[in-house]
């Protein structure tokens, strides 16, 4: 069975390509796939097959497939009708239709999930396939996405059936938990203990089943779905998908035997649907819509039969389901033929087709006869059984029987209307001149119609196969047969035909009933959808103001309110409080607080930046006093790097912040700021007081030495205990560096130029010691500074490497080392500009970042290859001849990766925010005089600071903007 | 544990100053607000741990050592802040180069939805109109 599903999936994926290569004929080959499903079912007639594959063991969901009698019947229909309709599509679509490949793929995909649906034994798996059929139905209804009607109909079908499906899922879970199993075969084995719980589940499941089968009040989506290509309508919306709902009712019927809601809802909704659908079918002028409303009506009949819960009714449902699939699909294909050959489906415009297309007319006649219940066709067998099932019951059954007779009478009437409308010669209407319909179009329809006759004759074998399933329902014995002999059911069949004929030759023929659709439910759908849309606009408009300060303010207000309320209601207020650990903390804290407050008030960018920096250095001092030398070291270095970055960018930006907003909003902001500060301080105060548990880090000192092989706990933890965390962090750094570069080098040409320029060879004796010395830019820079930077550079880099390797046992490590090396590069850049930077680091920053990431990941993987966990470190002891004993942890390699990434980040920042910004402004300044540069925004030359404009009037070509 | 009052006050001040800058429209100012706020959060994490000698085995008895775990988390945070600062600075510069200022503008789509809400109209995406 799994093989069948795989076969469908493969065929669906290959179909578009195959159709493009082989044209329409390929569809005949593809039709073999659903035919195989049908053939497999035939080969296993009367047998019970199960297959189970584990899927989600944690949720106890397995891919449980089961072929029992109901699945057997459905599989025959799904596979058989699918194959015939697909073969029909080969001729229905024009040769070389560009959308045919997509249609064939979607169609086969649908056939596959429908096969899965009927074979599922697990309710959750069934639900998955159920929703997949909805998705494929959506795609097939919307086959012509350029038509608004198709899009709307597809969306409508999707919304209605998915809404029902979600209700059904809840019902499934309730049922599964109630029964203790999600296998429907086990659930249906016996009636479950009753109660409101089970009734609720029943109603929820019915919501899904009825919406899928287009039962009142969900009927409206099905006629709209006729926007689909006719083969899709014939298959999905007549033969297979809409049967899923009634099929489910048939599957779960035994389990809900005692639930009143189950039976009353199915009977009431089914009867109403049958009568309303039949009534509406009488009033359509589009042949396809006549069939669509007829389908709705017949689905109502099926719901009544499967919902009744008696043996005879269940058999009647099964026979009717088979009969309906055959005759309705045949009729849809006939309408497709008429549409293709005459170009219209409007029965007011068609005349005289019966004489010109006798084979088509006979096919349609045979199908309508089955629909009307003429013996010995399949429709008659089913209808007989249905009448027999309701013949002997109480008042309720008799009332249902009456409704069934009336509904069947309408069925006969609209069947006649269809035949008359399609084939009759109408006075005053010019005779239609159809194109020739080849056997490829007519034969599939005829095949299905004849199958209806054969199925009627095979009623007794069918009864034998279905008997084990029918026995799970209670009720008197009944057997399907193509002729039961005289009795009430036969009499009723005659009455039905009489009603149909009299209605047709009575008021309907005279045109007394104008065209009309089922209005109420669709209007309700529109109102609901419009209301949802309006509500979404209101809610979004009220919450998404589109303003960053507003959004942040909202978040902060929530923080302040919740924080204040929680603290007020009873935080664990501490018994005591310390002023400080050492008085120096007060000094450092004051510096931090005062400079932060001044920064918030500053109006010049540079002032604010320096104050923020001072505040950060103050934090570093606090770290020192707290006993965190690694933190202090990193904070000092990061703060320095931050200041350099700010300087690089702020030299290009205006000196002052832009104009401040209104006083009112400033006051609001300050109130919020003070509130947040108080809330944060209060929460900090309360949270620390509430801390009682022993910190998990008490074991860290021992673990750091024994497992990590180092004595600096913080650094060992970074590269070992919390190495995954560090891995994520350095990945973020790589992404940030890449982001910076792509924001600053805004053109492809500039990015290419960036790579080319770094090809400058490292400084050799012939090239001059100071690289910046031979370009005009150097005139603005201090030679002394360049020399000092040169002299210090290697010492600083050496120190950074020392920090890297000593970090395992002393303060330091990859981060600190990388930052120190980065600052060495920064010094070179500040002293000599881009040439000096390129001389110091003649590599691409991306290369350094990539090498770092590779080293870090490689260390982790190496540990895994060696048999440990990812990023696990090992201690290695090596004896070298000269150096002697060497003891190190493999996590040092990870730290080297971190080091390289930090260096790469700084290098990328210097190249982007430093060198490239210089270049852009040099270019803007040199372009400003002769012409406006199209590459740069027009204001750039005007806004450039005076320094940039006078910087280098005689800029060399190498510094001007590169060719693009 | 008894909290350290200096820390509590500094955390409050850093949060207040950070928030007041964060609520501005100038991107460089927002970024400075983030940095101040980040320092406040780092201090908040540190507040929950014991101060003491540097957490280096062999330097001091374990009982006198500062708690290493908050330090590890803060170290990660500090370096991440560096990356974020670089990115936001590049963003601010680009914004200035493209539009002449580094202010965060209102989202036009959101404004459009607000207008629809004021006019009591739908978005027109419910697709239920009869005529196409």
SSE blueprint:
The complex is a heterodimer of chains A (964) and B (132).
Chain A: H1 2-22, H2 26-30, H3 32-43, E1 49-56, E2 61-67, H4 69-92, H5 100-119, H6 123-141, H7 148-179, H8 184-187, H9 196-212, H10 221-224, H11 230-239, H12 243-252, H13 260-281, H14 287-308, H15 311-342, H16 353-356, H17 358-372, H18 378-391, H19 395-423, H20 439-457, H21 459-470, H22 488-508, H23 520-543, H24 548-570, H25 583-601, H26 605-626, H27 629-650, H28 663-689, H29 700-708, H30 713-721, H31 723-744, H32 748-757, H33 783-806, H34 814-840, H35 845-865, E3 875-880, E4 884-889, H36 891-928, H37 940-943, H38 946-951
Antiparallel strand pairs in A: 1-2, 3-4
Chain B: H1 5-22, H2 27-47, H3 68-99, H4 108-118
Helix pairs in contact in B: 1-2, 2-3
Largest sheet of chain A: 2 strands, antiparallel
> Can you tell me the CATH topology of chain B?
Helix Hairpins
Compressed to H and E, one letter per element, the order of chain B equals HHHH
Shape designation of chain B: elongated
Shape of chain A: elongated
Strand order of the largest sheet of chain A: 1-2
Q: Write down the oligomeric state.
A: heterodimer
Task: Indicate the CATH class of chain B.
Answer: Mainly Alpha
- The N- to C-terminal Cα distance of chain A equals 61 Å
Q: Architecture of chain B, CATH level 2?
A: Orthogonal Bundle
Identify low-pLDDT runs of chain A. Answer: 754-767, 931-964
Strand content of chain B: under 5%
Main interface: chain pair and counts: A-B, 137 and 108 residues
Describe the structure.
The complex is a heterodimer of chains A (964) and B (132). With 964 residues, chain A is an all-alpha fold. Helix content of chain A is 70%, strand content 3%. In chain A, a hairpin with a 3-residue loop joins strand 3 (875-880) and strand 4. Mean pLDDT of chain A is 84; it is low at 754-767 and 931-964. Chain B is mostly helical and 132 residues long. In chain B, helix 1 packs antiparallel against helix 2 and helix 2 (27-47) packs antiparallel against helix 3 (68-99). Chain B is elongated and about 70 Å long. At the A-B interface, helix 7, helix 23, helix 24, helix 25 and helix 26 of A face helix 1, helix 2, helix 3 and helix 4 of B.
